[in-house]
Design a protein that fits this description.
The complex is a heterodimer of chains A (179) and B (125). With 179 residues, chain A is α/β, with parallel strands linked by helices. Chain A has six helices and nine strands, in the order βαβαβαβαββαβαββ. Helices cover 44% and strands 21% of the residues of chain A. In chain A, strand 5 and strand 6 form a beta hairpin. In chain A, helix 4 packs across helix 5 and helix 5 packs parallel to helix 6. Chain B is α/β, with parallel strands linked by helices. Chain B has a single domain, classed as P-loop containing nucleotide triphosphate hydrolases (Rossmann fold, 3-Layer(aba) Sandwich). In chain B, a hairpin with a 2-residue loop joins strand 5 and strand 6. The model of chain B has no long low-confidence stretch (mean pLDDT 97). The chains are: A alpha/beta (179), B alpha/beta (125).
């Protein structure tokens, strides 16, 4: 089962996603993978990653790293496993704003590859961030990023079996009614 | 009246076309330049309309109050801009509040209110 999860920051998305992925893996007796999407740029990022790794300790995740070209993960990991991909937001940022510069068209590639990832694994929990409801006027580059992230979100919402919004630790199902 | 709202780029217009008997050409896309709501079956980017009022220091709530009657059979589509940090900029701050008041007024009058999340609508009224 593919699951798409979004919601505001610090609402409990990652915790819910971890639980969902762990349950799915236990049910299937399948290996459980954490797809790490963050590319560290400084000490702050390193510390954040270390904290996330500590938080996942004892959950049984095997961490596979993929800052970009997400389907490359499936060359090393077993596609029949259960994957937690946290987050779509970081993946798109890596692809759109890399050391090679700004790629305005990265959104289409990311949406396409994520849909492919969902199709090939059949058991992935995708986590994204709901960054669409603030009263701000952004520059075109930022606006393009938001537009592209929303397009990837909508694409995943279409192909996933479950769509859930996490708000204050509470889960609202927009597709399906439980994991 | 039907109010369809949600975050930016959530597929609200597409949802309107799919679920109500309108074509995308029936949706008049508003901009901050619009000072009145021209005749149309449906309005898109209603948040741009209120942004114009905020920018000009005018009251969109007042406009709505005076024109509510003419909106009775319309579909109104708008971004929800209520869930970010309070903007430092005066215009954006005024816009955020005014827009909130306007959506509340529309929702109170509407027969149906739908929130769209990643292309999926939930009828909340």
């Amino acid at each position: 089962m593919n699951v798409f999860i979004s919601g505001g920051a610090k609402n409990g998305k990652s915790m819910f996603a971890q639980r969902a992925a762990k349950e799915m893996a236990e049910e299937k007796g399948a290996p459980l993978y954490y797809v790490a999407t963050m590319i560290p740029h400084d000490e702050e990022d390193e510390a954040r990653i270390a904290r996330h790794i500590r938080e996942r300790e004892g959950w049984g995740f095997t961490t596979v790293e993929a800052g970009r070209d997400i389907c490359g993960v499936l060359d090393e990991a077993d596609p029949d496993g259960v994957f937690l991909l946290d987050s779509v937001t970081a993946l798109l940022a890596n692809e759109m704003f890399s050391k090679d510069g700004y790629d305005p068209g990265a959104g289409e590639k990311v949406a396409e590859e994520l849909a492919e990832f969902a199709r090939r694994t059949g058991n992935t929990v995708f986590v994204s961030d709901y960054i669409y409801s603030d009263a701000a006027r952004y520059d075109e580059m930022t606006e393009n990023y938001r537009r592209a992230l929303a397009a990837a979100d909508r694409r995943l919402a279409r192909v996933c079996d479950r769509v859930a919004e996490v708000s204050c630790g509470t889960v609202i199902f927009h597709k399906g009614d439980k994991i | 009246m039907i109010l369809i709202f949600g975050g930016a780029y959530q597929g609200k217009k597409e949802y309107a076309v799919k679920n109500y008997s309108i074509e995308s050409e029936d949706i008049l896309i508003l901009s901050e330049e619009d000072r009145t709501l021209p005749a149309a079956r449906a309005y898109g980017n209603f948040h741009e309309f209120t942004y114009g009022f905020a920018k000009r220091g005018e009251s969109a709530d007042e406009y709505l109050r005076e024109n509510m009657e003419s909106l009775k059979d319309k579909i109104i589509i708008s971004d929800d801009i209520s869930s970010g940090i309070v903007p430092v900029d005066t215009t954006l701050r005024a816009w955020r509040e005014m827009h909130g008041r306007c959506l509340n007024m529309l929702a109170a009058e509407a027969d149906e209110v739908v929130r769209v999340f990643c292309g999926i609508g939930s009828r909340i009224k």
